[in-house]
Amino acid sequence: MNRSYVLVLLAVFALFFLQLYAKGEAYSTPVSVVLVILIIGATLLQLRRKPNR
Asked: How far is CA 2 from CA 9, 21, 26, in A?
């Protein structure tokens, strides 16, 4: 398991718990957007590094 997979896994768990416990907080929406961008960016980076064979 490399860093991209670990980063995506941690970001998914963070997003899950953020949506579960911090629904009404002012910081929840910007943090959610940043986490989604992080998940998409790390996934695309991993797909670019390892082409399908």
From this structure: 11, 29, 33
Predicted pLDDT of residue 16: 92
What would the pLDDT profile of 1-53 be if each residue is shown by its tens digit? 678 788 899 999 999 999 889 877 888 889 999 999 999 998 888 888 766 55
Q: Give the contacts of 22 (CB within 8 A, at least 6 positions apart).
A: 28
pTM of the predicted model, to two decimals?
0.79
Contact 5, 46 (CB under 8 A): yes
Q: How far apart are CA 15 and CA 39, in angstroms?
A: 10
